[in-house]
Amino acid sequence: MAVYFDHRIEAPESSGVPSHLTWHPVLPVLAVASSSPSTGGHVDLYLQQGEYVEICHLERPHQPTLLRWHPIKPVLAVGWEKGEVLLLTHPSGDQTVVPSTHAAPITMLEWSSSGSRLVTGDQTGALAVWKVDARGRLQGNHLVRHEYNKPLTCCIFRPSSPGDDVAKLARASVSGDESALDMFSWKGAPLKMGPQEGLAFYVSTADGKVHHVDEHCKTSTLLSVDGSIKKLFYLEKREALAVITDTMMLSQYTLGPEGGAQEFMKVKLSSSRTGQNVDIVWTENGLLITAAGELVIRLWDLERDDNYVLPLDETLGFERGEMINCVSYCAGKEILAAGTTHGRIAIWRMVVQPDSSRGDTKAQWKLQTPTEVEGNVTQLQWGSSLNLLAANNSNTVLILCEHVMSAHFSQQVAAVQLTPTQLSITQFPEEVHLALQSDRHIKGVCVTKDSVTVWSSKHVTVYQLSGTSLRNTGSFPCDSQVVAVHDENLYTVEPNRVQIRTPQGTVKQLLTFSKAEGNPVMLNVCQSYLVVGTDTAHIRVFDLSRRDAKAHSAAKNLAEQISNLGALRSVKCNANGSHVSILISQVNGRPDHKVYFYDVEMDTVTHFDFFIGRPSSSISQPEESERQQFQMSELSGRCPVSHFWDETEPRLFVCETVPISSESSSTSFLDTLDVSVVTLFCTQEHGLLLQDYYLRPPGLQALLALDVPHYYFSCKPGEKDQELTEVASKASAPQHQPQPQPSRGAAPQIPHMVSRRALRDFVGLEDCEKATRDAMLNFSFYLTIGDMDEAFKAIKLIKSKAVWENMARMCVKTRRLDVARVCLGNMGNARAAKALKEAESEPEPEAQVAMLAIQLGMLEDAIKLYRSCHRYDLLNTFYQASGQWKLALETAENQDRIHLRTTYYNYAKYLESMGDKSLALAYYEKSDTHRVEVPRMLQDDTESLEIYVNKMKDKNVYKWWAQYLESQLDMDSALRFYERAQDYLSLVRVFCYMDKIEKASEIANDTGDRAASYHLARHYEGHDDIKQAVHFYTRAQAYNNAIRLCKENGLDDQLMNLALLSNPEDMMEAACYYEEKGTHMDQAVSLYHKAGYVSKALELAFSTQQFSALQVIAEDLNENSDPALLARCSDFFITHSQFDKAVELLVAAKKYHQALDVCVSQNLTITDELAERMTVTDSKDLSEEARKELLETIADCCMRQGSYHLATKKYTQAGNRGKAMRALLKSGDTEKIVYFANVCRQKELFIAAANYLQSLDWQKNPEILKTIIGFYTKGRALDKLAGFYVACAQVEIDDYQNYEKALDALTEAFKCLSKVKDSSTGQQEVNLADLQHKISLIKKFVHIRRLYAEDPGEAVQLCEALLEEPKLDPAVRVGDAFGFLVDHYCQQGNFQMAQRKLKELEKLLPSQNVRYYISQASLKALQKDLDIPRGQGDNNHNVKEEDEVEEDLNLS
What we know:
5-stranded antiparallel sheet, extended, about 40% helix, single chain, alpha+beta
């Protein structure tokens, strides 16, 4: 909580009543305009605490009308009622009169955002624009002057468009954005490198018009409204203009790029006054606030289209009927201030709530305790960078400065500031309350058990505290900003030293600091140790236990140990001076999220980082459990705001933390809901250990101190926390005023400002003696570090059950079940120990701890634990057991749906026990148990039960109600409800009881209900109506009963059908019945067969020669049947020439060879299925050799039948791949032959496959050709491969006359043949020689053909010589050589020579058509030259074609 120090301005006597006031936007300088009937108008400047700046004084015989500060420079523009405009400079007092332009009262003064333009306007409508330099000095005459002929009312400058983001434009240019690239070019407009000053503005007149004046000072009318315009606002986010008239009509306009305005909203603002008397404030986040002399202030959120009011609260000190005159908003602190008619200033602070954004609802504005300034507050204004508030109460002006309330606790005495001059003092443990009223503003307080010391910035006063009285023992001037007290000594600071004074101010000792160590700015005393912090981030610790203060440690420069250190925020030392805790601000001014600890003895600095929720890595920690990790996560993302050491226990440290988003404001965290209190153990051996943490209750305000066994908190008057041990007592001591002070009235009762809360380990032990307190502290410490032996040693002498119970409660927080068992034992709580033992079956440790919490009555902790481990089933059970049925139902419906119906049922039972049957009925229905539970519940209320039965329309309920009616002998009603329930058995049963057999038979026949039919059949049987009994037994599918009646009564004609419908046992009985009677033997065989007794059926069939039945039975025989039986049946089928069936039975009997013999002898085709059945896979049936022999036999049979593929399969299964390949070759399936050869990878198979492939048309299929070569190669049959190459060469010669390819093939053949191993016969040499001879001849012929193109003569001579070679043909066909010569001579035109060669060829080949070797062109040339008729040539040609065909046929 903050208090406000009010400073009355030191106005000169000549000044009159204040009329206007305004703060400089940055500097703490306030301008006040006043008027007096005798002296005229005055303008004066005042500093932060109201000091009068005498040199800056303006005085005129007429009144000032407007004041406006330059936005940056200390230059004030003043407008007067005679039209004069004057510029006043602070602090020099220089005055600059603006050249005379106006002759009427100045109604408008406005600076541009950077102060380079000043706009002035008067009541006649004259407007002038002036240019101002960077120093705030006027430059020449006005830039422009406009006449609007109406009084000017408002002026606002339009903000400039934001500057272009150069980095963003650069990225866009690189990515190819041409428009962005053009902005960097020299051709375009200059690039805006930052925000520019907006020079365009809007000006309004009294006739409701708004004019736009652009950057070049050209004016144009923008819009017009009804009435005089009171306020203009610019909505920057929407780029809209808001206009408020004197009739409180709000209009909003969107502004177009070309200067037009379009109205999009118009609304009448609620107000009891006209616009001239309404104070209107506009905030940057779109909030419009008005004060119109009402009991409330009104707020309109224009961005969210919402409005609400903020009233005053009488409980905080406001009076009934108190009106609000004026309002002002501080954006820096998010504070709203309002002045009232009774001289109070109401303060609303925007409260930061978790998980919500600012400004959402009115609930986020929290009203504070008012500040009283006397008079009637008519004007308020926040200003300067220090966020000072100026208030005009019609008589004078007061400057209010916010001050965080002073509070201090020491030696069981607490002091909390109530008002700027009043303290509330509380003495513990007697809980004595008294108040201290000072004659000066209290900026700080320090208490001990015997004294209260207060100080302002210029004076220190010491009061002696004795019981319920305060006595002034000393007062002296001192400008120290901080003071500390130890025993009878006061410690004050001044540059480079600390002064040790007496209560009267006498300096007893000086503690000097070097220039490097800096000026002391912080003091803190704990027990007998003083820690001093300086402005250069040095700290020193002094021992105060002796008469003179002695240095306990050398000066420590924290900047060397802490990076990014800007300044110290706070330093505190512990009770034995071994550790100092430090809070700092970073270089950027933001609070650091770490608490630093300086170990004086070790000269080391460690820290606890609340951003990550754990201490520094250099500090030793025990092994982290899941609980510790959870705690660390809860502590993360926070920032410390205050810290304290326990006054007597040096190990115990506590601090307050807030979320990181809330730490920026120095006071806002006081109103933040999410403040946590964290307690740590700090020792040299174990470092920092988390002892406890919890959220600060809402009723408390700030932590004051830690003094075991309590935390001490300040709280607001009237606000309490239910969980706290309240400090306040019903009786309070009378107020003591050391010095008589004028006051408007004394409070009847001192408000209680301090509350204390017991530490977690001391709940219930607040009043324990010191030994128990020390034992509990040691126990808690050793428990924290995990040293159980020392922990139990610390408490072994404690006998109090309350202490053990408290330690058991502690175990719930620390989750130490092992310690809890010991505590429960010492408590003698057997029930809790048993429950904890049973809870050990739960897998989650949290669930076990929750059971402990339940047994100790810590129900909230149990709920949190169950939620943390997601055991909503146990949480549901807990809620039910504790009677929290609403929560139990919510848990079951949202998280524990598996037990939802059970929860509904239990709740219904609870409601029934409470007598709420109507609600219990609803939950019985939800649990789906209403069919049983509701009739049971309502059985004593027959009328309600009947109404419920008729309403539910549920068959089960109908049945229950019918049974009830039947028990009451109301048969007709029972029958009606049985019928609704469709309970046909009960209907038939009742009708039989009533002797209405026909009706019962009708129901049984119509519905086919088996139970009803069975009951009716029993009834008929009891009345010896066998036929009907058999019928209804059959309908009920009770065939055994029907069969029994048939056998007993000789109904053989129905027996067979019934037996077939029944089970095998009944079939067996019926078959035995037929067999015994010796009649219907075929039916007996069939029934035996159907019942599964095949052997019995066959025996009976053979004995009675039932051949047709035997055939039916044989169809169901399989390999699982008796082999002897199968053999007997197969013989039967062979005898009757049914060989197919005989073969199947022989196979089933595993007589495969006999089956094959039958197949061969009777020429039966072996199918794939039969072959598979004869394929034995189990080595137990046949040996491996016998199995292979059987498979080959099957394959042989398949070969004889032409089933080559099946034969291949069986040969393969038998392992005989050679025969398998032969079978495939016979099948002619080329694809499978190739596949099989590649899979088997045997030489013989490769060769066989290649030989087969040669029989195909391999000349036209290159793939077959490649496969043949590949197979011969894989089979290493090089001689066969050579022969194949020779064949290929011959094909090339004969079919295509391609001697080149033939030569290549023969070459490959020679290579292959040369690799063949020599045999003793010598045939290989002969073959190689022959092959070599052919190659040489073909080479010559190929050479002749190639040479012909270069030297035809030489080629012809070589060809003639070639014809002389012996054994030329078949290497080179003679016809091809002669054809070459004939073609040559024809081309040379030597047809006679060509004719001669042709005749020589005919002599050599008399049986062949020699024209086959001659080209068509040569033949035509010969025919033409020898005049052979055309027809003859055609005939010859035809003969040639016929010869070719004949030759092809011969070749094939």
